[in-house]
Design a protein that fits this description.
heterodimer; A: 176 residues; mainly alpha; Butyryl-CoA Dehydrogenase, subunit A, domain 3; three-stranded antiparallel sheet; B: 298 residues; alpha+beta; Immunoglobulin-like; six-stranded mixed sheet; four-stranded antiparallel sheet; 10 strands; 37% helix; rod-shaped
């Protein structure tokens, strides 16, 4: 694959990375899920008597990490922030550069890209989600997934596709 | 940043590898994340669309009213240097749809959208709609909202101030009405129907500088005020009617009395004449009798 032939390929790669970044922002800001507190047959009465306690609580990734931080669980909040926010961001930045200039990163940068890609994965996000869920779930309540979950998942999937494109591009260039 | 290139590249590729451009490209996703985050934070995705949807029904309730500690002339609102006893009224399109209960001695009066009456509790069954102190409305063009604040006193309610505005002013969430008035701030909460009192809505506030009317709009006048005014008008009309009737009766009575007096006068006159003639007759008779007696004695 020549450099001229690879240009649309790189462009697609770059666009995918940027779309992934936009979806990632959605994953950070939009509600991942909404907790709807319920008390079986007492739900109606509880909503009347204690509306603030019974309100539906949308949970965002940023909000969850912030509430953990404020709640004195700084370590866990920092861990989640690194794996759910920082590493995916770094990965997106590195993928963006790789899309425009393949092979820019060698040595420690390349290893860091691989590491970031490995840990900024959906599994980590799911673990983060479960941790937040387990922390905030009142008894007998219902959880509904929000658009943030879809956005985050889309970001991760697009990042994977971009990573695959990058590898394909590299293998093409090697064959050249 | 180590840059490697094992094979010679075209000039355009070399250009893309300039460090500044690479840094910019590296920061591009970060910029996108920030931009999208800002847009999403400010837009409707957090649960409230900007503006009101005409296809939806909304609930509106009066959350809070804050007024100046003293009247504009510096005097206290209530007797004994007391704080005002506040209550508020809301009308939509000229019809009163919501009245709050009175909050005694308050400069900041707050109300909850949920309120359960003892009578409702005693019924043994509570319907959510019965427990809500809200006004429902569906936004439409040209809709007018009129909001007034009152101070309850011994004799009734004293008007504090009012404001009138269109539906375009209100937004979902908390709407803080401000402006030059004795009413420093009035918070109205607008929330999609079914979510009343569920919180959240009060977190997002729209500050709305409005022009307070300074005069009580007709549509806000309370039923008692209207009743008082109507009663006063009826009483005035009644007193006018009664005065007319009295005047008529007085005339009739006077005529009757005059007639009676006239008759009486005539009667008395004729009686006096009769009495006079009877006395004369009696006198003549007595003279006749005394004359006869003298003759007999002789």
């Amino acid at each position: 694959m020549s450099s001229q032939q690879g240009r649309p390929f790189r462009l697609l790669h770059l666009v995918l990375v940027q779309v992934s970044a936009a979806a990632f922002a959605g994953g950070l800001i939009l509600p991942l899920f909404t907790i709807e507190p319920r008390l079986d047959e007492w739900t109606g009465l509880a909503r009347i008597l204690a509306p603030d306690q019974m309100r539906a609580q949308p949970v965002t990734l940023l909000g969850g990490i912030r509430s953990m931080w404020m709640g004195g669980e700084a370590g866990l909040a920092a861990l989640l922030a690194v794996f759910s926010i920082l590493l995916p961001l770094v990965k997106l930045c590195l993928l963006s550069v790789e899309a425009v200039s393949p092979g820019s990163f060698l040595g420690p940068w390349h290893r860091f890209t691989k590491m970031a890609a490995r840990y900024a994965m959906l599994e980590v996000f799911v673990v983060a989600l479960l941790v937040i869920l387990a922390k905030g779930l009142p008894g007998g309540s219902r959880i509904e997934l929000g658009p943030g979950t879809a956005a985050f998942a889309a970001s991760v999937l697009l990042g994977l596709v971009a990573g695959l494109l990058e590898q394909r591009g590299k293998s093409g260039e090697t064959r050249e | 940043m180590p840059v490697s290139s094992s094979s010679p590249k075209p000039a355009s590729d070399q250009a893309t590898k300039s460090p500044l451009r690479l840094i910019l490209i590296a920061l591009l996703p970060l910029g996108i994340v920030l931009a999208v985050s800002v847009v999403l934070t400010r837009s409707s995705w957090k649960g409230f669309p900007a503006g009101l949807d005409p296809d939806k029904t909304y609930s509106l309730w009066i959350r809070e009213v804050e007024i100046e500690a003293r009247r504009p002339d510096g005097s206290a609102w209530d007797l004994g240097n007391g704080a005002p006893d506040l209550h508020a009224v809301l009308a939509i399109d000229g019809v009163v749809v919501l009245r709050t209960p009175v909050r005694d001695d308050s400069i900041v009066a707050a109300w909850d959208p949920v309120s359960i009456r003892v009578s409702t509790l005693l019924k043994g069954e509570i319907d959510r709609s019965e427990a809500l102190r809200i006004a429902n409305f569906r936004p439409r063009e040209g809709q007018r909202f009129t909001f007034g604040v009152y101070e309850k006193d011994l004799l009734g309610s004293e008007f504090v101030d009012a404001v009138s505005f269109g539906d375009s002013v209100l937004g979902p969430g908390r709407n803080d009405l401000t402006g030059a008035s004795s009413v420093r701030r009035a918070s109205l909460i607008v929330q999609e129907s079914g979510e009343e009192g569920a919180g959240g809505a009060e977190d997002s506030g729209n500050s709305l500088p409005v022009e307070w009317l300074g005069a009580e709009p007709t549509e806000l006048k309370s039923s008692t005020t209207v009743l008082e005014e109507r009663s006063a008008r009826l009483l005035g009309e009644l007193s006018e009617d009664m005065a007319g009737e009295f005047r008529k009766l007085e005339g009739e009575a006077r005529t009757r009395a005059e007639q009676v007096f006239e008759k009486l006068e005539k009667g008395v006159e004729s009686s006096l004449i009769d009495l006079d003639s009877a006395a004369k007759e009696l006198e003549a008779r007595l003279r006749e009798i005394t004359g006869q007696g003298r003759e007999d004695s002789r």
